[in-house]
Design a protein that fits this description.
mainly alpha; elongated
Amino acid sequence: SGWLSGAASLCRALVARPLAKALDRNAQAALAHSLLMLLTVRYANGAGTPEMFACLCAAILAARRSGHPEARLSVMIKLMAFEKLGGRPRVYAAMLRRMRRDLKDAAPAYEARVLKAMSVVMIATGQWDAAVSSLRRASAQLAALGYRYEVLECTGRLNSVLQHTGDFRQLLDNVWEDERVARRLEQSTILRWTLLFKMQAWLRTGSGTLDAAEQCLR
């Protein structure tokens, strides 16, 4: 079953070490990334928990055998995505410590994406300053690499921090610019979240006209 297969992979992962040959290590890294992509697809298609557990544990084992920091970081990001945020603060604290150790050996694009993923945990656990710092670093690196959509994702998460901390003046300043950029880049998902942030800021501050609110909702 999926539970037994996953448990077996997890036990092997606990004692696994990077393989001796570079070719074998690279193959295991590719396998880890492929398993994580498969996991995402199967989750979207309604796979059961045992199957996802087995796939995730197999990816953990492959990442351990690869010795690649990027593979290990990708697994950690996926673990965060499937875990209930804030439900196990000690587990997350341990995961964040491990991810910070691996970051120093990661390529810039991976580092930026890991920082973005780490910010989700920081937001969920109320680590506002740490979240802002991670998002700003990630945004700067992603902008330098030309990943415009992911820069907008970072901005959206920064807006989430502003909303949680009640800094609605800064939130309103941000969303006007974010809306302009999202429209210019034709990023409908980012635009939708930006408009929702705008509505939240208007509701909390009592600003904005009825006509503007109706137009925003449309």
